[in-house]
Amino acid sequence: MAGSSTTPPTGVIRSSALSFVASAQPPINDNPVDSSLVTGPSQTSNEQMMAAERLVPAGLKALCDAYSRLYPEQPNPLQVTTRLKYWLGGQDPLDYISMYWNPGKSEENIPPHWHYVSFGLSDLHGDGRVHPEGGLESGYGLELTLRLEAAGPAPLWPATLLQALARYVFTTGNKFCAGDHISWHAPLDGDSESRVRHLLVAEDPQLPAIDTPHGTVKFIQMVGCTGRELKAAQRGSGFDVLKLIAEDPRCGGSWLVTRARRASARKVRSARTGTAPALLAGVSARVKWLPYTTDTEESASPQLSPTVEQQIKETLQRGLNCMGSTERTVPEGHNMSTDSFEMSSIERALPQIPELMQGSWRCEDTVEYFQGVHVVMNAEGASLLPLAIDGRISHGRHFTWRCGPRALTFVTGGVSGALPTITRPYAQRGPWLQLLIPPELARDMSPQLVPLSRLADTDSESEDEGEAPAPPPALPLTLSWPKYKLKITVVPDCEFVA
Which residue ranges does the record annotate as region Disordered (predicted)? Predict the structure, then answer.
């Protein structure tokens, strides 16, 4: 059992908003006694337990019980809570985040660590204040966990990280699944020397799914990873990379404990190998599209004086600095893309929009066709263009970039349910644009897109530890295929305007 007699680091103040739940539990007794014969203090304990059951929402109690089964000797864990609850207008969806001390297993290279667990992505209250009532899953059907190697008292940055991830789920409706990856592009612990700057997603190895009065709940564990490990997951399988991390004794063991001070797991290589299609079928990224214009049309446009251009740039930058965070769901400075997904049908790539809108999508007269398209992407999304072409399109598969309600999908002629045709290669239905990439265009695009993969190399090690990685291409950058009336412009994240 994880809640062993090994004591946590000294100096930890234990304070839990849920301690009254544990205090109301009846003592464990191997020799049960007929309750009708019990009087005095035992009756008081029963009354306390009944009072606690009335006070504690059923969904919250189910999570407490699950965590208490794993850590029976820690009824009052260190805990952080939101001052202003989400349903009252607060910004943090997680009501509580508890931090349990786990001694690990030295014989299996699992270090002592803090186990962070969340309360709030599942339905705690069952009264509709946050989540819709009913359904097979409780709320979003998951709670988040993270294991951090212990180096003293439990730090608070993992709790901040889990809150940011929860905001992403509530804002987009996209749920995390085991095997996903999350591009964070910043040291998780805030130390610029740390290579652990992204996250992989796994199922918590010690917390199996539970049934609650409001539905089922899975426990999804966030695992810190390096840039090389992230790229390997994008170009192969997140599960394979998690397995390599678990097998490397330097990386936290089979329980996938995050170690902020480590290099990439041995045997992890970020380059794609073999000829099999890539499993990654899409990501969340910043993307938009514009009408296609020829270079002649652009050069014929009125030229602005350097002074006017500078004024426009300064005005644009002020607008960017003042923009609301309608599309950002993580702290400023973090460029998070997530929601990697494997799909066998184009229908599963539909963006998350209200069901009423989806009904109108299936009407043929709502499809708009274009002769040409100019796609604009941020660097994170563009870094996966080589994978989309060589790992998906060249194998007859599709690839999707999602940006809030918008979605851009590259398809081939063999993708079932695709809207474009050879004569009408660019089709838009609602906020969803599909681009047909025929084999000859894919062959033209492939060599030009290869350098874009280095856009994700800024915080990664080189494949050869003795050699510095090649620099990424300078941005902004525009690639054009005039024969197909297709352009792709890649801009830095700070210059992307939705």
Answer: 25-45, 455-474
> How many Å apart are CA 118 and CA 220, to the nearest integer?
10
The CA radius of gyration of the chain, in Å to the nearest whole number, is: 26
C-alpha span between 496 and 381 (Å, rounded):
12
CB 206 within 8 A of CB 100: no
Torsion angle of C-alpha atoms 224, 229, 233, 234, degrees rounded to 10:
110
Within 8 A by CB and 6+ apart from 491, the residues are 376, 377, 378, 379, 475, 476
Cα distance between residue 254 and residue 242, in whole Å = 9
d(CA 470, CA 459): 12
- Tell me 317's DSSP state: H
Quote the pLDDT of residue 129. Answer: 93
Indicate whether this model's pTM tops 0.85: no
What would the pLDDT profile of 401-457 be if each residue is shown by its tens digit?
Answer: 998 889 999 999 989 889 999 999 999 999 999 999 999 999 999 999 999 988 876
Q: Which residues pair with 211 in a beta bridge?
A: 216
Contact criterion met (CB below 8 Å) for 383 and 372 = no
Strand ranges inside 395-476, DSSP E: 399-403, 406-411, 426-429, 432-436
Tell me whether residue 354 is exposed, middle or buried, using C-beta atoms within 10 angstroms of its C-beta: 0 to 12, 13 to 18, 19 or more.
exposed
- DSSP run (H or E) holding 39: none
